[in-house]
Write a structure and sequence with these properties.
459 residues, alpha+beta, Rossmann fold, Uridine Diphospho-n-acetylenolpyruvylglucosamine Reductase, domain 3, 3 domains, 5-stranded antiparallel sheet
């Protein structure tokens, strides 16, 4: 067995990465790290299969990488799972950072593949160099202890067997054995922060101290151990401080909070905010922390957070609850027949034309997630958009128009269900809102020749 394989085996044992006899899914991009990981895991006798996700970000090069991994898996007689997506288009549609979107889509694919193939672990090819680069990226962009330790040897099903080895050791392992790999040309693109850290920052630090990468790796390991302790203490404190509260609200004892160290209180507040679907940056969390611990603070504090939260103090209890959210804005043309995906809500709206002859109960209407309209009245300029203040139309059987907001209240449609509700219009006039009756002006009548079916498929 090679020295590199010995080091990897020691890391696997030290961090208890692989359960005895378990199957491991190796994520392989074709680059030196993941290709080296695949060969090393086979050398160690681990039962492995291979997965490759094509992000389609580099044109022919992306296709080359996929073919390389396909040939590699075939040569090693290993099971291969592949998938791909236009990540750039998906990132625009989701309004996400490209790197974050790529990571999320890749991990979703890997988790599903592991489940389908019976793999207990998902092995990623991150090295010590990747850990140090990520450490500096997080430090530059601003983060706390949690962010600085984000690349862990083991997190759930994800394992990183190469996390204690340098990239140069993996490349040397491959070249000594004349094992092929591919090179991602985007790694030389200095528009990306990670590449600038790798090409410009780390060489300067290594000239100051040749052991800087290893020492930062050790520091991160210490931080990770202390972070686990702090997280455990915070969860215990959160449970101890909690008071009974209605759904959508978190109540904490002011007296219990005041007896804790501010560092623990800050973590308790983060846990409470996360439960409410909110995230706090440093300034927002510090403002909330100061308000919670102040003796003569105002009775109410509105946080400028991602997912706004309103905090109130009443009878020695700090009550946190979600503030009313702003509905997402969207507008799409509806093809007939066809479908459209509303990226802002993940709903899908489908349309099709039906023959009215023999259609059961022409006056019937399903006012939940499917509607039937007179196609001759409703095909002009069909579109779907978000609900806006003042929306109104004449519901089926009514003599006068009614506001959509009032009808939603009457039907007890609240919260996110109301917030994300699509509105279907024809030539600028509302013909249907899912959960409500169709418009009287677009209803199916005995004279209807063709019926337009519109179906909402919620996320």
């Amino acid at each position: 067995m090679s020295t590199v394989a010995d080091l990897v085996q020691a890391s696997i044992a030290r961090h208890k990465m692989v359960r005895a006899g378990a199957k491991v899914l190796v994520a392989c991009s074709g680059g030196p790290d993941s290709t080296g990981l695949l060969h090393i895991m086979r050398e160690l006798g681990v039962a492995v299969s291979v997965a490759h996700f094509n992000h389609r970000l580099r044109g022919d090069e992306s296709e080359r990488d996929q073919e390389f991994v396909r040939d590699l898996a075939a040569s090693l007689e290993l099971e291969l799972s592949t998938a791909g997506a236009d990540v750039a288009a998906e990132a625009r549609a989701r309004r996400m950072n490209l790197e974050d979107c790529a990571r999320r889509m890749r991990m979703d694919f890997l988790r599903e593949t592991a489940r389908r193939t019976g793999a207990l672990h998902i092995a990623l090819g991150h090295t010590l160099d990747d850990l140090v680069e990520t450490f500096f990226m997080k430090l530059i962009r601003g983060t706390g202890r949690t962010g600085l330790t984000s690349i862990a040897p083991v997190r759930g099903p994800v394992i990183r067997p190469l996390i204690e080895l340098r990239k140069q050791e993996i490349v040397a392992y491959l070249e000594e054995r004349r094992l092929k790999y591919v090179v991602d040309s985007s790694n030389a693109d200095l528009r990306f922060l990670r590449n600038r850290i790798r090409a410009e920052m780390l060489p300067v630090l290594e000239r100051i101290s040749g052991r800087v990468v290893g020492r930062i790796g050790t520091a991160v390991a210490v931080l990770r151990r202390e972070e686990a302790l702090m997280q455990g203490l915070a969860r215990e404190a959160f449970a101890a401080c909690r008071q009974p509260a209605p759904t959508g609200s978190v109540a904490l004892s002011s007296a219990d909070l005041s007896g804790l160290h501010p560092a623990i209180v800050a973590r308790v507040l983060r846990l409470a905010l996360a439960e409410l679907g909110s995230r706090a940056d440093y300034a927002a969390l510090e403002g909330l922390l100061d308000w919670c611990l102040a003796r003569n603070a105002a009775p109410r504090f509105a946080t400028p957070l991602r997912g706004a939260v309103l905090a109130e103090r009443c009878r020695a209890v700090v009550d946190l609850r979600s503030s009313p959210r702003v509905p997402p804005h969207f507008q799409y043309d509806l093809p007939i027949p066809g479908s459209v995906l509303i990226h802002e809500t993940s709903d899908c709206i489908e349309t099709r034309i039906l023959d009215a002859a023999g259609f059961p109960d022409r006056g019937a209407i399903d006012d939940n997630q499917v509607c039937y309209l007179d196609a001759s009245r409703s095909q002009l300029g069909l579109e779907v958009r978000n609900r806006v203040d003042g929306d109104a139309y004449r519901p089926l059987g009514a003599r006068h128009t009614r506001k959509v907001k009032k009808m939603l209240i009457d039907r007890k449609i609240h919260g996110a269900q109301k917030l994300n509700l699509p509105v279907i219009l024809s030539a600028g006039r509302i013909c249907w809102v899912p959960g409500l009756p169709v418009s009287e002006d677009f209803k199916v009548t005995p004279d209807t020749k063709q019926i337009l079916e519109i179906k909402r498929l919620p996320s």
